[in-house]
UniProtKB/TrEMBL annotation:
Residues 3-92 form the Small ribosomal subunit protein uS4 N-terminal domain. Residues 93-157 form the RNA-binding S4 domain. GO terms for biological process: ribosomal small subunit biogenesis; translation. One of its GO terms (cellular component) is small ribosomal subunit. It comes from Candidatus Uhrbacteria bacterium RIFCSPLOWO2_01_FULL_47_25. Belongs to the universal ribosomal protein uS4 family. This is Small ribosomal subunit protein uS4. GO terms for molecular function: rRNA binding; structural constituent of ribosome. Pfam families: Ribosomal_S4, S4. The keyword rRNA-binding applies.
Amino acid sequence: MGRLLGPKHHICRRLGERVCTSAKCPMMRRSYPPGVHGPKGYGRITEYGTQLREKQKVKYTYGIMEKQFRRYYNKALSQTGNTAELFLQHLERRLDNIVYRLGLARSRQEARQITTHGWILVNNKRVNIPSYEVKMGDVIALKEGAGKSARWQAIEQYNSTRTPIGWLAFDNKSLSGKVMSLPTKDDFPQNMNMTLVVEYYSR
């Protein structure tokens, strides 16, 4: 499985918007593109450029390579309903995203790592595939003993400032969460315009 490598903060500045979860993202201080000509700003952007930038933003936010990202689009396109909403629903239902949303990891990158390392159980069975799509009623938990690790102590401290996700329920005692419903339009990140992404692939 491919991974997105390279300077992630560089990507944030290139896109003109934060796609990482770091509180120290340079975008907070230097909100212009990287490089010697960066301070001149982003300049005018075409309709195609706007669509491309939105596609790149969503793709980098979820940490997905182009081939797999397009596969989610094709899957949404083949279903009945709003393609943009179905597209984002598939992204939100990825196991690594669920682990992050539940607060079992501080970032999607960390969620992907602990998933591939076998820390995550789905309905009491170990699942080490970050792209696994959860279903309504699924229970996601840390494996036994993982809650005593130094990493979890740091994650727990980080979670004290996070806002709960409406379509997920989390039990801090058992370190497990449940998918109460599938995400709807109201649950999606407000900074993502999936209609632009669909328009990009529809060209």
